[in-house]
Amino acid sequence: MTKNDGAVLDYRNVLLSKIKENAISFSIGLTLVTVLLLGGVLYSWSYISSQFKVEKKTQPSVASATNKVRTYTIQEGDQLWLVAQKLYGSGFNMEDIMRANSISNPDLIEVGQKLVIPDVKPKFPTTGEIASGIATSNKVTSNKQPATYVVKEGDNLASIALQVYGDSYAWTKIAEANKLVNPNVLQAGMVLVIPK
């Protein structure tokens, strides 16, 4: 081995030791940076989530208004309109029953189903005697012959039939009388003939 060989070995050893020192420093630095970044991200995420916390809105229960829950069990042949008529004297209170029970389709009720009956005022009476002057409505107007109905935003034939006849299935009468090609297409302001 020559003198130059020893210098090369020392140089190599010095170089390797420097690389190891730098690698350790680099690893420690990288670990610290990673920990700081993760800590910052977690802190930011927790701060943001606490600032924009979405709370589930709960609707007050029917029972909280009266502390007395009234229920009705669906019987064979029941329809929500008839149930409302029986309990309130007005089939129009069907909407209150639907809202209290989260019912979106009044035709989808089952025998044995328990309904919460909300404590609300009866709407326009559909049973019993109606005193003169009370039975006025701006929804159905009667000319000499046919009655007419002016379509409002959000109306459909079933809801109109429910208002006019008290039976949502009577929408076919209105569709036939008005020769509607597509009964699902109504426009606000359209005047419909309401057959008697």
From TrEMBL:
> What keywords are assigned to this protein?
Membrane, Transmembrane, Transmembrane helix
The record, for Gene3D superfamilies, names: LysM domain
Return the InterPro entries for the record. Answer: Bact_Kbp, LysM, LysM_dom_sf
Instruction: List all membrane-crossing ranges.
Output: 23-48
For whether the record's keyword set contains Transmembrane, the answer is yes
Q: Which residues form the LysM domain?
A: 70-117, 147-194
- Coiled coil stretches, renumbered: none
Superkingdom of this entry's organism? Answer: Bacteria
- Alphabetical list of PANTHER family matching this protein: PHAGE-LIKE ELEMENT PBSX PROTEIN XKDP (PTHR34700:SF4), POTASSIUM BINDING PROTEIN KBP (PTHR34700)
Kindly provide the name given to this protein in its UniProt entry: LysM domain-containing protein
